[in-house]
Design goal:
The protein contains ten helices and eight strands. It is α/β, with parallel strands linked by helices and 263 residues long. Strands 3-2-1-4-5-6-7-8 form an eight-stranded mixed β-sheet, with helices on both faces.
Length: 263
């Protein structure tokens, strides 16, 4: 799919906005001249054939679709979208607040994650009632350039997924960090521990992706084998692994809800 409309990314000079911009251009969804990006301080050297500006209103005025990619703490921003499609990738900010602030009923909340940088993001999203069928097709096309997307049923789903998938790439890194610390504490050289752990984590993700398997089934296979992996899984669960994960996701959900309430 390619589109002739113009896409503007407010916050395109930032990490996530730049990652999405790169995916959009690499996929051929829009031509470089139809992509605009705003930045705050120094203009990035990426995307030289696209439009760059520090004026968010100027960017909105020249765009058919506006993707809002700034930190929630830096919002609200003063720009009038006047009936255009606005896609927010900010955690917590509600559809109603986006619509009121930017003067458009065509608003979408989406939540890509850090894996957008390598084209492997999982992006849940939800649109307001006035978002059209064509709008939804465009939202899917944008986020399919940087991974997989799902339209969900409620803003509460987005708030929960803020922790589950929005924060998700941090969790394997957290597990890897704990594994590496244990390996080094047992006497392995740090470089050996890093290679071993990083390979395990990345390979596990590829195996799950390739087979599209249910994680429960994978875990149960190892438990049924009754070997060293089963002993490790049982030990982690006894130590509170499942409860710790549930508590972390619960706190992330509450944080997302509170961010929206403050907007």
């Amino acid at each position: 799919m390619s589109v002739s409309m113009r896409i503007g990314i407010i916050g395109g000079g930032g990490w996530l906005g730049g990652a999405i911009a790169g995916s959009i251009l690499d996929s051929g969804l829009v031509n470089p001249e139809n992509l605009g990006l705003s930045y705050r301080n120094e203009q990035p050297r990426r995307f030289p054939n696209s439009f760059w500006t520090t004026d968010n209103q100027a960017l909105a005025d020249r765009s058919d679709v506006i993707l809002l990619s700034v930190r929630p703490d830096d919002w609200p921003l003063a720009f009038d979208a006047s009936g255009r499609l606005v896609i927010s990738v900010m955690a917590g900010i509600r559809l109603a607040a986006l619509s009121e602030r930017h003067k458009t009923c065509r608003v979408v909340r989406a939540l890509p994650n850090a894996a957008a940088e390598v084209g492997k993001s999982y992006t849940p999203w939800i649109g307001a009632n006035d978002v059209t069928r064509d709008d939804r097709a465009l939202v899917r096309a944008i986020f399919e350039t940087c991974g997989i997307e799902d339209e969900v049923a409620s803003e509460s789903d987005i708030d929960y997924l803020t922790g589950l998938s929005g924060s998700g790439p941090a969790f394997p890194a957290l597990l890897a960090s704990a594994m590496m610390r244990d390996a080094v504490a047992r006497g392995l050289p740090a470089e050996v521990a890093r290679r071993a752990v990083n390979t395990v984590i990345s390979a596990a993700g590829r195996l799950l992706e390739r087979g599209n398997e249910c994680p429960d089934d994978v875990v149960q296979t190892f438990l049924d084998y009754r070997g060293t992996t089963a002993a490790a899984i049982e030990g982690m669960r006894t130590a509170g692994f499942d409860a710790a994960v549930a508590e972390g996701l619960s706190l992330a959900f509450k944080k997302s809800v509170s961010m929206g309430a403050a907007s």
